[in-house]
């Protein structure tokens, strides 16, 4: 009898173990799926592609203007040097300025609206102006001496750290028209308001778009007065390491 009982017990044990194992696996699988679903829906910095897909998908389906992302706009040019916008500041200076703006976007947890062009190569520029004086407006000269932002930087890669869109993208036009429709509930044009106020005060923090009028002379001025090093979120090497794929490949070949 004793032997029979033991045999029966031995038979049942593996079965219950397998059952237990199966249950644990499905619980873990469920938790895993739940966690990843949860994190994608709450992840604060989705990449631009995903964001664009959402908007494009929506514009094909039902018109839906409830954009759940919030945006920060600093202007359409980095460091326009006053009256002489056609002779732009050096790249290092402009990258410092851009970093300053990106840090604010991180701080405010907003998507940064990047200027679609960046002025570059001032030496080449000056020569061009000296040797062939043209009647082109300063606007035209600036366009000539600037490069498309997405030819300089890998915006998708930047978006892994801080989501960015270009100010000539479909999504930006959609944000603009939505913010106009919402009026004062959609957009604030601010100047000289502190970062903390933009983050903490509900009249700013809930808006779809903050149009922050940065110093046109140098965006970097907005970060100059920071004496708290712990507020620096992006290292100096960040933007150089975000060079567009084409440029990175070219550099590797050299
Ligand atoms: C510049 O303007 C002058 C007269 O205003 C004209 O004669 C000349 O052809 C123009 N040059 C260019 C490059 O457009
Ligand atoms: C942002 O604000 C500035 C100054 O108030 C204004 O000139 C500019 O048109 C605004 N831009 C947008 C996109 O709202
Ligand atoms: C610097 O900033 C951090 C984080 O915002 C804050 O905790 C700290 O108190 C600040 N330090 C000074 C000296 O302001």
Summarize the structure.
This protein is α/β, with parallel strands linked by helices. The chain has a domain at 73-123 and 137-171 and 191-204 and 213-252.
Relevant terms:
two-stranded antiparallel sheet, globular, binds 2-acetamido-2-deoxy-beta-D-glucopyranose, single chain, 254 residues, 9% strand, five-stranded parallel beta sheet, 54% helix
Question: Can you offer a commentary on this structure?
Answer:
This protein has helices spanning 2-42, 48-60, 91-108, 122-131, 138-144, 149-152, 155-161, 170-182, 195-200, 202-205, 221-224, 245-253, and strands at 71-73, 111-114, 117-119, 146-148, 164-166, 187-190, 209-212. It has 254 residues and is an alpha/beta fold. The protein has a domain at 73-123 and 137-171 and 191-204 and 213-252. The strands form two sheets. The chain has a five-stranded parallel β-sheet, sandwiched between helices. It has a two-stranded antiparallel ribbon with strand order 3-4. Strand 1 (71-73), helix 3 (91-108) and strand 2 form a beta-alpha-beta unit. The longest helix has 41 residues, at 2-42. The radius of gyration is 26 Å and the shape is globular. Residues 7-11, 38-66 and 124-131 have low confidence and may be disordered. Bound molecules: 2-acetamido-2-deoxy-beta-D-glucopyranose (NAG) (3 copies). One 2-acetamido-2-deoxy-beta-D-glucopyranose (NAG) binds next to loops.
Fraction of residues in helix: 40-55%
Order of helices and strands: HHEHEEHHEHHEHEHHEHH
Based on helices, strands and strand pairing, what is the structural class? alpha/beta
- State the strand order across the main sheet: 5-2-1-7-6
How far do the termini sit from each other?
84 Å
Question: Ranges with pLDDT <50 over ≥5 residues?
Answer: 7-11, 38-66, 124-131
pLDDT averaged residue by residue:
75
Describe the sheet with the most strands: 5 strands, parallel
Small molecules held by this entry? 2-acetamido-2-deoxy-beta-D-glucopyranose
Categorize the overall geometry: globular
State the assembly state of the protein chains: single chain
**Number of β-strand runs:** 7
Number of helices: 12
What portion of residues belong to β-strands?
A: 5-15%
Rg: 26 Å
GO cellular component, one term: Golgi apparatus
Transmembrane segments: 18-37
Keywords: Membrane, Transmembrane, Transmembrane helix
């Amino acid at each position: 009898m004793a032997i029979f009982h033991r045999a029966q017990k031995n038979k049942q044990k593996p079965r219950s173990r397998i059952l237990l194992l199966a249950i644990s696996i499905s619980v873990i699988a469920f938790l895993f799926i739940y966690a990843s679903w949860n994190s994608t829906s709450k992840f604060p910095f989705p990449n631009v592609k995903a964001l664009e897909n959402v908007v494009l998908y929506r514009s094909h389906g039902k018109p839906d203007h409830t954009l759940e992302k919030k945006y920060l706009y600093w202007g359409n040019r980095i460091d326009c040097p006053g009256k002489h916008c056609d002779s732009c500041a050096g790249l290092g200076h402009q990258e410092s300025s851009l970093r300053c703006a990106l840090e604010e976007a991180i701080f405010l947890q907003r998507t940064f609206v990047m200027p679609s062009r960046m002025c570059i190569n001032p030496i080449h520029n000056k020569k061009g102006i000296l040797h062939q004086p043209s009647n082109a407006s300063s606007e035209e000269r600036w366009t000539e001496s600037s490069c498309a932002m997405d030819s300089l930087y890998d915006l998708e890669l930047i978006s892994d750290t801080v989501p960015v869109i270009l100010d000539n993208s479909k999504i930006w036009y959609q944000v603009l028209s939505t913010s106009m429709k919402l009026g004062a509930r959609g957009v604030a044009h601010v100047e000289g308001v502190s970062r903390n106020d933009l983050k903490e005060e509900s009249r700013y923090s809930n808006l779809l778009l903050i149009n922050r009028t940065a110093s046109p002379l140098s965006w970097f001025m907005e970060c100059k007065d920071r004496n708290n090093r712990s507020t620096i979120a992006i290292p100096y090497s960040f933007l150089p390491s975000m060079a567009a794929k084409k440029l990175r490949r070219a550099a590797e070949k050299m």
